[in-house]
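Hi,

I'm pasting everything inline rather than attaching a file, because the server keeps stripping attachments. The sequence lines come first, and each chain or strand is labelled.
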Amino acid sequence: MSFSSDLRPPEHQVAGHRASTEKLGPLVDGAGLFYKPLQAGDRGEHELAFYTAFSAHPAVSPRVRDAFFPRFYGTRLLPTPARPGGDPYPHIVLDDLLAGLPSPCVADVKIGACTWPPRSPDPYVTKCLAKDRETTSALLGFRVSGVRVAAAGQGGEVWRPDRSELKAMDAAGVRRVLRRYVSSCGGGGDGLDCALAAAVYGGEGGVLAQLRELKAWFEEQTLFHFYSASILLGYDANAASAPGGGGGGVRVKLVDFAHVDEGEGVIDHNFLGGLCSLIKFIGDIVAEASEKASSGPS
Amino acid sequence: MSFSSDLRPPEHQVAGHRASTEKLGPLVDGAGLFYKPLQAGDRGEHELAFYTAFSAHPAVSPRVRDAFFPRFYGTRLLPTPARPGGDPYPHIVLDDLLAGLPSPCVADVKIGACTWPPRSPDPYVTKCLAKDRETTSALLGFRVSGVRVAAAGQGGEVWRPDRSELKAMDAAGVRRVLRRYVSSCGGGGDGLDCALAAAVYGGEGGVLAQLRELKAWFEEQTLFHFYSASILLGYDANAASAPGGGGGGVRVKLVDFAHVDEGEGVIDHNFLGGLCSLIKFIGDIVAEASEKASSGPS
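And the predicted assembly:
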C-alpha cells in the first residue's frame, strides 16, 4: 500500500468499508486525525454539508459539540491506491475517536427504529425498511453495527463478530453484546461477568451519564434529524481494568451523517426514542452489576 | 334510535365511527360510563385482552393506571339498532373520559411515528406506512386524529375540523391546532391568543405536567408497546375560562388499544419518541404564553 506519509487504515475499525487497493475507506495518521473519504452519490456532499453547518452553528453549544461529536477540520485531497494512478480523492478530516486507546473496545450502535428520512424516495424507503425489520432497529430502536472487545493485557484476546452475525442478532443477542462489551473475559469464556460495567457504563463520566446528557439535548434540539447515524462507544481495556484506573477513557460520540435531515423546529423523536431504549438496556446492566457488587461474591 | 335505557352516542366524540342505525359506535350512559363496541376481526379481542391484562397487571402502579387510563369494567352485551333485530353486541365498558365536562374541549392525538407493530403482515405495514407518511406521524411522531374546541359561555362557538382537513394537516397546521385548543377565541376569529395555555397546558395539574409524568413511565416500562394508541386531552371551556377556575378539569388519557404489542423487556421507543415531540410542541406554547404574560400587554 502506498498511502502518503503515515496514513493507514484504522486498526480497530468496526463498521463501514475498509480501505484497500480496491476500495476507498477511512484512514488515520496516527497523530489523532481520521480521514473519511467522501461517500459516492450525494451522500458524501450531504455529510460534508452537515459537518460544515454543524461546526459553525450558533445554536449548538460548544459543550455538546465537543463532548459528542468528532471535531471537523475541513477536507483534504489524498492520493489513494484505490483510484487509478493514485488520483487524489477528497476526504473529510475529523478527530480520530479511538486515538489514545492502545487496547480499544469499540461499539458502533446505529440509532433509530427508522433509518430513512421521511421524504426519501420509495425504493430507498423499501430497502431501509426491510433492513430495519430484519435487524433489531424496528424492535429495539437501535442495532449494533459493529463491535470489538479486547481483553486486558498484552496480546489479550479480541472478540469481533462479523457483519452477518451482527445482522442476524435478536434482542437477546444485543443484550449479550452489551454485557460482553464490559465483561473482563472479553473474547474468551461464556460467563459474561460485566466486571467493567461500573467503571465503563456507570459513574460520573461513564457511558450512561454521557448518554443521559445527550438525551437531554435531543429533548430540546430541533435543528437536525440524525437518520441512520451511529453512536460510537469506546474505552481502553487495559486502563479500565487497572485498579483505580477510572473508566479507561470512555467516549460516546455521534458519527455517520450522510442522512441527516433538517429538523425544521421538530425534535428528532426517532433518534431520541432509540437513544432512550439504549439507555434502558445499559441502565439495566449497571443496576444488575451494582446489585451483584453490593450482595458480595456468592 | 332505540338504545336501551339512557344509552346514546357521545355528544362530543372527535374520532372513530359514530353509532347510528347503520354503524356500531361507542355509547355513553350519561352516568359516567362509556361503551365501546368490540371491533371487528381480531382487533376487538385484542383490545379486550389488553384491558384485561393491564387492569390486573401487578407491575403497573395504581397511580399510572388511575391517572392515565380509563377504568375498565369488563364487557356488556348491548342491543344495538345497527344489528339485525337489535341483536345484542359485546361492548367494552370503560370510564366516560369526558364525563363532568359540560363544555368539553377535546383532542385525540395518535402517538408514534410508526402505527404498526413490527411483526405485522406486509400489506398492513404498507397501508399504515403510507398513512404515516401522508399525515404528520412520520415527521412529528404524532398526528391529530380529532379535535373539538368550544368557546366559553352558553352556546359558545364550536370549532371541529373534519377528518379530511385533519389528514391534510402539516406541521404548521398541527402547531396551530395545539394553539387554538387553548385560545379563548375558540372557533371564531383568526388571532390565536393562547389565553388558556397557562391554565390548561401549564401549571401543576396541567397537560404538560401530566405528559411529563407519563413520559417518566414510558422511559422505564417494558410491558406494553402502544402502537396506534392515542392520547386524549380534555378540559372544560367554561371552567378553564372562569377567573381562578384552575385548569378546568384537565385530563390526559391513553385510549385505543387494538394494536398494543407485548413489550418483551424493551421500552416503547416509538410511543416515547412521539410523546417527547408532543411535549416539545406544548412546552413551546407554554413558554411563549408565559413570556407574553410577563412582558404585559403590548
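Chain A has ten helices and eleven strands.

If the labels don't parse on your end, tell me and I'll reformat.
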